Structures are given as structure tokens and as C-alpha cells.
DNA sequence: TGACATCCATGACATCTGTCATGGCGCGAT
DNA sequence: ATCGCGCCATGACAGATGTCATGGATGTCA
């Protein structure tokens, strides 16, 4: 019997996935959480063999939860399950040591399949997604540039970003300019969109 | 026995929801589609009593599918099911004559419950969401302003938008300016964000 | 230690953006 | 038929934005 933890913030989706996995004879959902920062404790108390982690979650995102889990409970298998097949997500998940990376677009049968395979020591990745992730390349932004771009994502002005990050306006403009250059964007908003789509923010 | 059609583009979520509804003794999922423009035909061939429609879908969005369905098959009940509880979505769904509006954040039990209730002629809406939808108010943008703002959403420049919509640059700037004013935004990107969050785009 | 990258900052410049006043056109409502 | 409104356009202006050259302060790596 495979014991699975399910971490997904949308209750209806989470319980639906639990129902789906419940149809499998050899799989049992032993814990469900809705927040990234509840994963570790739930794994410890439930003793699950596999953690199924969504990425977009409150508290702590699924990638951070995976990193924490990898350190604290190295034996636990990690399956990332996300709506968005952003290349940067896949890359970060792999660097963190996740065992599988699934998108919710994929057929339902792949879920139980992936759970079984990671338990046998295999790694499961959508080959198409892997290809695009490799072709897109790694995040070209520096940490500071990412900070500034994130701060610009909601439509803030330069002066607002500057005061929020305790920088001068000129510095903010310089960072944004290099973000625009590195992402081959036309302007700030475009750079935000591109970085977002690639999973760099 | 209640016959349900399920329209949702993410295969894994769709099949998981089907598994969830399959646990109910009085409900049967008789059709599944992944695109909005396949809803009507599937309803006709399956003869489903209730259509469960996601909003974000390729081909045609769930709201457009609901409108089409309401006209062509007035007897069919419509339940909107969406990730995002955007006020504008709820408002448009109600104006279109949807019978229920659920968010995927809600507990799974509400899904089957809503299906049964709409079939008894009730309308099902999350009261919290209804309150915010009413407090936010209706979309203040004109059709043309919406067009321009949509065209600006991906970070396009004024000249690009102008040529795409066959307008002069000055007109584009004027429309954008009034979008910014009406949404109480700080600039274009902010206006895009606000309109998006409210479900106006 | 030197080479190098990152981060921060300044100032100057061209361009883009947002605002405003103004006016014409078409349409539906009073 | 006049009014209001949406739509399109122009021109002008201030302010925001993006680019560039330049330079100092750090920290890392060979």
C-alpha cells in the first residue's frame, strides 16, 4: 500500500484528486493540506511515502516545501503537480531534487502511474516540457533584478519601487533596464510577463 | 439519476472531478469536454440535465458557452465552476442566466449539492462572493476601451496597439487614459491588473 | 593579487506615456 | 430635434520611462 500526502490549496480540486487516487487499489491518501507550510508536519505525522505538491499555494509555495522536505525527510518521494508548465518551475523542481513533475493538463492516469514509478526510484518528467525548459535556458536575472521586477509586477511606479526596496530611482531604472534587455522585452510590463511565463518570478 | 456534462480544459482536474461526482449515487457524468466550443454538441448528444462549466477554456470560454447553451437548450441547468472568484465573472454569469456559480476553493461537497439544488430550481451562489461582486460594481469600461486595454495587456507599445486595432496613436492613448481613470489605476499596467482581477477582460 | 561580477548610485538624454482641450461623427433616448 | 454618450482624431504639454556612460563598494574565484 502506497501512502500519499496531497498538498493543494483549492479544496475542490484537492478532494477530487483524492477521490481519483482513491480509485486505485494500491494507493491511499493519508493526509491532505492546503498550505505549503503545513507539508512537513503532515508528512511527519502521517508517515506518507510520497508527497504530491502543488506549486501555487499560500504560506509557502510547493517548491519551497519540496526543498524543506528534501532536507528533513530525504526518503520521501516528491511529485510536483502544477497547473502551469513554466520552464523555470521544472528547472527549479529538478534542482531541488523532486522525483516527478506533472502538469494538470496531462491525463489523469499519469498521476497514479507517476506515484508508483517514483516509488520504484524512477524520475518522471513530461518530455515535451523538459525540451522547452532546456531550450528556454536558465533564469538570466540576478537576484536583485528579480526583486525589482517582482516589485514592478503590480504596476508600481519607479519611485514606489525605490522606496519599497530602499533604492534610488536611478538604480531601479537600471535594474529594470537590464531586466528588459535580458528578457528581450519591449518594456517593463513585457519583461514582467515574460519572466512570469517562464517561472522566474 | 442526474446526468451531468463536465467542461474543463485540464484533463487531470476534469477526470478527478468526474471521479468525485462518480462517488455520488444519484449523479452520473455522461459527457466530458475540454473546450468551450464543444459544449453544445456534447449536451445535445448526451442529453445531460446539468452542464458544469469551467470559465478558462480554449476555443470559447465557459461564459460564452453558457450563453450559447442558454439560448439553444433552455431547459439545461448551468453551473459555473471556476478557479477565480472574479466579481465580473459572477456578474456576467448571472446576467447570462447561469443557475449556480462555484469556486474551486469551496469544499468538494458543495459540487454535488449545487448540482442537486439547481435541478430543483434553486440558484446557488457563494454569499461572500456575491457581496464583493455587488460592492465592486459593474464594469465601467466601454467596449472599445476594453479592446484597447486587452491589447495592452501583453506589454505592447502604443504604436503596436494602434496598428493592430487600426487606430491612431492618440486615440489609443486617450482610451488607455480613460481606462486608467475609470479603474483608479496608477498607469497602464496597473489598469490591466485591476481589470483582470475584476474579471473585466 | 588581479580579474570579474554584482550592486548601488548619478546625471544626461531621447523617447514613451498620460493628460487635457477641442472638435467631428453617429446613434439612441427624451 | 436636441441632448448625451461613445467613438475617433489632433496637438500640446509635463512627467515617467528606458538607455547609456561612468564610477565606487563588495565579494568571489583563479
What is the compact description of this entry?
The structure is a homodimer of 201-residue chains. The first copy, chain A, is of the alpha/beta class and 201 residues long. The first copy, chain A, has helices at 11-22, 39-46, 62-72, 87-96, 109-119, 127-136, 143-152, 158-165, 169-182, 188-197, and strands spanning 2-7, 27-33, 50-54, 77-82, 100-103, 124-125.
CATH architectural label of the largest domain in chain A: 3-Layer(aba) Sandwich
CATH class of the largest domain in chain A: Alpha Beta
**Total domain count of chain A:** 2
Morphology call of chain A: elongated
How far do the termini of chain A sit from each other? 38 Å
Mean pLDDT of chain A: 93
In what range is the share of β-strand residues of chain A?
5-15%
Structural class, from secondary structure content of chain A? alpha/beta
Task: Identify the biggest protein-protein contact and residues per side.
Answer: A-B, 37 and 37 residues
Q: Strand order across the biggest sheet of chain A? A: 2-1-3-4-5-6
At CATH level 3, the topology of the largest domain in chain A is Rossmann fold
- The CATH homologous superfamily of the largest domain in chain A is called Response regulator
Overall radius of gyration of chain A: 19 Å
Total strand segments of chain A: 6
> How helical, in percent, are the residues of chain A?
40-55%
Instruction: Give the quaternary arrangement of the chains.
Output: homodimer
* Biggest sheet layout of chain A: 6 strands, parallel
Chain-wise SSE layout:
Two copies of one chain form a homodimer.
Chain A: E1 2-7, H1 11-22, E2 27-33, H2 39-46, E3 50-54, H3 62-72, E4 77-82, H4 87-96, E5 100-103, H5 109-119, E6 124-125, H6 127-136, H7 143-152, H8 158-165, H9 169-182, H10 188-197
Parallel strand pairs in A: 1-2, 1-3, 3-4, 4-5, 5-6
Helix pairs in contact in A: 3-4, 4-6, 7-8, 7-9, 8-9
Chain B binds a DNA duplex (30 and 30 nucleotides) through residues 142-145, 157-159, 167-168, 170-171, 173-177, 180-181, 187-188.
Amino acid at each position: 500500500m502506497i501512502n500519499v500526502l496531497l498538498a493543494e490549496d483549492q479544496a475542490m480540486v484537492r478532494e477530487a484528486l483524492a477521490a481519483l487516487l482513491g480509485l486505485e487499489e494500491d494507493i491511499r491518501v493519508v493526509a491532505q493540506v492546503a498550505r505549503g507550510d503545513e507539508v512537513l508536519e503532515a508528512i511527519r505525522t502521517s508517515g506518507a511515502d510520497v508527497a504530491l505538491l502543488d506549486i501555487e499555494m499560500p504560506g509557502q509555495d510547493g517548491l519551497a516545501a519540496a526543498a524543506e522536505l528534501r532536507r528533513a525527510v530525504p526518503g520521501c518521494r516528491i511529485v510536483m503537480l502544477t497547473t502551469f508548465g513554466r520552464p523555470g518551475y521544472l528547472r527549479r523542481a529538478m534542482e531541488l531534487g523532486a522525483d516527478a513533475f506533472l502538469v494538470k493538463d496531462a491525463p489523469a492516469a499519469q498521476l497514479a502511474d507517476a506515484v508508483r514509478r517514483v516509488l520504484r526510484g524512477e524520475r518522471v518528467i513530461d518530455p515535451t516540457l523538459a525540451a522547452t525548459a532546456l531550450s528556454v535556458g536558465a533564469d538570466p536575472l540576478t537576484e536583485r533584478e528579480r526583486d525589482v521586477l517582482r516589485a514592478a509586477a503590480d504596476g508600481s511606479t519607479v519611485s514606489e519601487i525605490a522606496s519599497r526596496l530602499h533604492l534610488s530611482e536611478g538604480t531601479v531604472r537600471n535594474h529594470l533596464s537590464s531586466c528588459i534587455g535580458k528578457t528581450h522585452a519591449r518594456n517593463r510590463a513585457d519583461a514582467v510577463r515574460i519572466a512570469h511565463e517562464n517561472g522566474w518570478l
